[in-house]
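Exercise 7b. Backbone tokens:
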């Protein structure tokens, strides 16, 4: 626009028609052009084109939050009495949405560890209309082989949705592995600066056109032009930031493994990738590490309280290193029994490695662990 390097923010709610007939043609879909910003906006359009290009999909759609994206996709793929098969381990609010869909609309769901073909096949029902996967799983960082899931789903003609928030298209591209729809909480690595809540979806034209005209338009979780602009800015540095997040996380994971107060470290290392035959799936391990401490819930909380440099906060993918306690924070909505089954114990701590010097991150974490 006028040669601007950075796209302008089209901060407008509506668009004027030159004539009444033009308005009629726009609504009838006979003429290209904007109508109203919930249905489309030039700044948002640029963002949607870029995420589609990065994920190698046909079309992208932007939403006001990751959950607006998740709900728009899941509601579009299901009707009453359908069934959703999920990875065992999901973002807490996605779990909450599934519970609500079950209670209100009889849309049921099951969980599968998806570590073998059998574990996937045996959970598919005639009424399954969607397979929904997170990998790495939040917050246990277990990995699922997307090529295997996609292959089985094709046999049954069921679309596979992947929440790719933790990996970003820089580290993992599910559509290239045969999956159908990719979702992002763009609040995390895509935005990358802790200043915006947003969601993105990428997939085939047919399905995304359907979402655009139904669950996006009529439920109304579209993104604001300013938030779209913030994501466009964040995206420019995505590969550089991701490499730094990965460098830092690798160092911290290595240090944690050697600490006597740490009983387990969960991070997508080369060994847990090859175990499942998914060495090629992720370019690197990402920026999120989970670990278990030798202690109680109180010890986990006091560890967090001892930190000076690292911030206690949910969310991830920001420039600052963030730490949280999943059992009492992000995954507190999941009933305790289910939570423990998913591996989310009271000793589990999740850390999102920021962009700082890894030595500073480790110095703080190490002193807090030593005081525990
Ligand atoms: C944060 C997150 C979401 C939800 O996104 P919001 O932008 O907070 O609505 C969904 N999935 C994963 C894996 C997340 O980390």
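Sequence design result:
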């Amino acid at each position: 626009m006028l040669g601007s390097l950075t796209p302008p923010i089209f901060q407008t709610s509506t668009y004027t028609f030159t004539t009444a007939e033009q308005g009629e043609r726009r609504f009838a879909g006979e003429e290209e052009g904007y109508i109203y910003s919930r249905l489309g906006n030039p700044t948002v359009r640029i963002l949607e084109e870029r995420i589609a290009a990065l994920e190698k999909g046909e079309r992208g759609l932007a939403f006001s939050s990751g959950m607006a994206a998740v709900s728009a996709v899941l509601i579009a793929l299901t009707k009453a009495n359908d069934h959703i098969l999920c990875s065992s381990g999901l973002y807490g609010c996605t779990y909450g949405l599934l519970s609500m869909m079950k209670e209100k609309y009889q849309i049921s769901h099951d969980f599968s560890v998806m570590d073998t073909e059998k574990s996937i096949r045996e959970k598919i029902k005639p009424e399954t209309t969607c397979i929904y996967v997170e990998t790495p799983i939040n917050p246990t960082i277990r990995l699922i082989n997307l090529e295997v899931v996609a292959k089985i789903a094709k046999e049954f003609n069921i679309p596979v949705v992947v929440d790719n928030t933790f990996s970003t298209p820089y580290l993992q591209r599910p559509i290239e592995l045969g999956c159908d729809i990719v979702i992002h909480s763009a609040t995390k690595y895509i935005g990358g600066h802790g200043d915006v809540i947003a969601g993105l979806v990428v997939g085939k034209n047919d399905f995304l056109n359907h979402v655009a005209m139904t669950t996006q338009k009529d439920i109304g979780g579209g993104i604001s032009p300013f938030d779209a602009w913030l994501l466009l800015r964040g995206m420019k540095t995505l590969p550089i930031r991701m490499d730094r997040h990965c460098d830092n996380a690798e160092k911290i994971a290595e240090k944690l493994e050697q600490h006597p107060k740490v009983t387990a470290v969960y991070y997508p290392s080369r060994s847990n990738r090859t175990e499942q035959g998914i060495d090629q799936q992720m370019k690197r391990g990402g920026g999120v590490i989970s670990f278990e401490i030798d202690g109680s819930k109180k010890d986990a909380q006091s560890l967090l309280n001892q930190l000076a440099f690292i911030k206690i906060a949910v969310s991830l993918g920001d420039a600052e290193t963030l730490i949280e306690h999943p059992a009492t924070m992000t995954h507190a909505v999941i009933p305790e029994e289910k939570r423990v089954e998913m591996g989310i114990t009271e000793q589990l701590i999740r850390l999102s490695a920021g962009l700082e010097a890894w030595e500073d991150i480790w110095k703080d974490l190490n002193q807090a662990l030593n005081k525990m």
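Instructor comment: The longest strand covers residues 128-134. Residues 238-371 form a domain with the Aspartate Aminotransferase, domain 1 fold (CATH 3.90.1150.10).
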